[in-house]
Design brief:
Layout: H1 16-19, H2 25-34, H3 42-51
Helix pairs in contact: 2-3
Length: 58
């Protein structure tokens, strides 16, 4: 997925846990996705948007 207001390189979901050493946020995303069979979901999106302080309200 691409979020235009977030500066994040394209990253495979399978790599999130290994990237946690560089950025602990990836560990949080990995835990969220693990609970949902590694399928991107509303909880993961909410965490991502909150982490990058992106608001979708007008």
């Amino acid at each position: 997925l691409i979020y235009p207001h977030i500066d994040l390189p394209l990253t495979a979901i399978d790599d999130f846990l290994s990237l946690a050493d560089q950025d602990p946020f990836f560990a949080e995303l990995d835990a969220i996705l693990c609970a949902n069979n590694y399928v991107w979901n509303a909880h993961a999106e909410k965490a991502l948007l909150e982490f990058y302080d992106v608001s979708l309200t007008v």
